[in-house]
Amino acid sequence: MSGTTAKFRVGLAASAAVFALSVSIGAASAAEKSAAEILNALKPPKAVATRSLSGGAEGSARALSPEDRSFLRSVRGKTRSLSAGERDRVASIVKDKPSIDLEITFDYNSANLSRKSMNAVNELGKALSNPELKGSVFLVAGHTDAKGTDDYNQVLSEKRAETIKRFLLQKYGVAAENMVTVGYGKTQLKNTADPLAEENRRVQVVNMEASKEAKN
Predict the structure, then answer these.
(1) Beta strands in 45-189 (DSSP E)
(2) What is d(CA 70, CA 81) in angstroms, rounded to the nearest whole number?
(3) Pairing of the two strands 203-209 and 50-51
(4) What is the pTM of this model?
(5) Residue range 68-96: mean pLDDT, rounded
(6) Torsion angle of alpha carbons 128, 131, 137, 143, nearest 10°?
(7) What are the structural domains, with CATH classification, of the chain?
């Protein structure tokens, strides 16, 4: 093999490596949600709903009952861990509310945000502090994959949800009383077919109560 041919092949290999890296970075960036995407996902449904063929309303979420609203007031801004019963009730309340799953990662075996997630949490902060969501009550829920014990994952998911809450409060002024943090550990896997999949390690944000409801 001539020196020229060898250099040419090395050049091709280097170019391929650079291309593969750029595609990988592009895919990672595409997975991140922008502030606008988060805002649109969390906006409450329009007040006027269309009627379905069965006679039910479409396009609107179930309004909170007085009991649910009272319960939310009791857990808003709390720093203590919610009981299993409280976690189940929160899950029931938010099941049809505007929500979004975000890929926010943390340092290994830690509740500290990883450096690569700073852009994601800043986009979240921009969205939640947008005037269009002013006064809304947000659920910040931490989830883990299935590795480790139930108790370990429960505590870790709670700590990670609290980390997000503190960041939103300190940097973007999202009121503590307008956030409910809860950890679900590994009880709500997004990818049940692959319990250790990365998408199971996520932060879920839900607009539990729109601003007009919250004032009632």
Answers:
(1) 50-51, 57-58, 99-102, 137-142, 179-183
(2) 18
(3) unpaired
(4) 0.73
(5) 87
(6) -10
(7) 32-214 (3.30.1330.60)
